[in-house]
Amino acid sequence: MPKIGIIAAMRREVAPLVKLWRSGVLESRGRSFQAFENDRALVVCSGIGALAAGRAAEAVAKLGVEVLVSAGFAGALLPGMRLGGPLTPESVVDAETGARFSALFGGGTLVSATRVVREDEKARLAHQYDAQAVDMEAATVASVAERHGCGFLAVKAISDSLEFPMPPVEAFIDEEGQMREGAFAAHVALRPHLWWSVLRLARNNRRASQTVCGVLDAILQIDDLRSVRGRMKTRVKFF
After folding, report:
1. Residue 56: its pLDDT value, please?
2. What is the distance between the alpha carbons of residues 110 and 22, in angstroms, rounded to a whole number?
3. pLDDT for 184-205, tens place per residue?
4. Residues contacting residue 81 through CB under 8 Å, at least 6 positions apart
């Protein structure tokens, strides 16, 4: 069994990393998750949101991995953050409960929200939690890691800037955390005012995916992630 379990909401977030890995399905409590594996790590695509991420993380943790990693995209909470730039936070905060979790190494703070955050909410989150970016899954994965005695890491990349007008993706996420791509595309096709933001987001996502996978690949070269807490802490940057 690989020592590292990586939870990503969507396959596109980790596609460059796993393109040559063994693929399969992880079954747990009547649910199926797309999975990819090599000798070092198991990547599971959970679906979007805390509930989906928690289900996948629990399934992976029970397999006996030593480290759980939440990997994927995040939104910038500060001006000037580079699109596609990496964020490996030292701490992750659950915006719903205020719970704070520490990573094995990193720099800065990521806050996990329960839904897609609007532009006008980002400043509040940045101020309230002294955070640089926001996602939807990392805090839940961190909570699962804590319960199971696993190490925890978050590997994110910035896919939308502070001022980016996010298209209405949340309305097209189903109960399992899956994006209804066809329905979303049909919605956008009839609304030309959304075309620019959707195309821009797709481009940003491709860039962010390359970053996430590059950082993950580097982390997978480390023999013992638990041993590098002090050594890596000051070397990981989030801008």
Report:
1. 97
2. 31
3. 999 999 999 999 999 999 999 9
4. 132, 133, 158, 161, 162, 238, 239
Six-digit token pair at 119? Answer: 């532009």
Contact 53, 70 (CB under 8 A): yes
Domain assignment of residue 81, yes or no: yes
**Tokens, residue 201:** 């987001």
The predicted model scores a pTM of 0.92
93-146 pLDDT, tens digit each:
999 999 999 999 999 999 999 988 888 889 899 999 999 999 999 999 999 999
In this structure, what token pair is assigned to residue 93?
A: 């905060």
- Identify whether 234 is part of a domain: no
CATH number reported for the structural domain that contains residue 52 in this entry: 3.40.50.1580
Is residue 173 domain-resident? yes
Number of domains in the chain: 1
Closest CA relative to residue 85, chosen from 19, 179, 185, 157: 157
Whether 5 contacts 41, CB under 8 Å: yes
